[in-house]
């Protein structure tokens, strides 16, 4: 499928835009790696997705009760440093190609990998762009909301990303959008495991609060984006074909285990 969209590159601290197909060589937000193993691709293009600025309410004002709730959630998450839940948040922060699909391995009972489940691997890799990047970046760029770890002058649970995160708006959460869209897609493939899969997708978003990378309201908004993207993907022929291939692939894995 040929999609006209923008690939975004960081060069010496400035952003350079170039037109390409539905292939992304790098990124302007924290979802896509600066040095991926291969170019990113998407199912959707910019015109396919809802405008996140129009879809979402503004983030909470700093003098509002909602922001007090955001602060309370951050402080609660910070009490989990050096616990197993903190370690899970660190793992969830890792969006390297080698970690694609891994957060859902226990819920699925299947380990997703490029070698053993290539159809599923690439489906999930594509929706990283759709949900985590295209779905969120208009609102992110508009609001440029400060992230919790910057506000509190500390660091996240995954400090190797902090330099990039400081330049990337906090609202809405791209990680949360990605986690929720992934959970919705996988639970559709395996409705008998939907409780475990959806819980894992929810926890993936909460990891961003625990990590100090996002406020709770960022994560809540990200889930709205994730659901919107999944609804739109169902009208995309290429995605639906890949969805069926992925489902068949994973079903074979369950019968062979």
UniProtKB/TrEMBL annotation:
Q: Which domain of life does the UniProt lineage start with?
A: Bacteria
Q: What does the record give as the reaction this protein catalyses?
A: a phosphate monoester + H2O = an alcohol + phosphate
- Which SUPFAM superfamilies does its entry note? Acid phosphatase/Vanadium-dependent haloperoxidase
EC category name = hydrolase
Keyword Phosphoprotein in the entry? The reply is: no
Return the InterPro entries for the record. Answer: Acid_Pase_classA_bac, PAP2/HPO, PAP2/HPO_sf
User: Molecular function terms in GO for this entry?
Assistant: acid phosphatase activity
Indicate yes or no for the key word Kinase. Answer: no
Specify the signal sequence span: 1-25
**Which GO cellular component terms are attached?**
outer membrane-bounded periplasmic space
Instruction: Report domain Phosphatidic acid phosphatase type 2/haloperoxidase positions.
Output: 123-234
Write out the entry's keywords from A to Z. Hydrolase, Signal
Return the EC number. 3.1.3.2
What family is this protein classified in? Belongs to the class A bacterial acid phosphatase family.
What this protein is called in its record is Acid phosphatase
Q: Please give the organism.
A: Commensalibacter papalotli
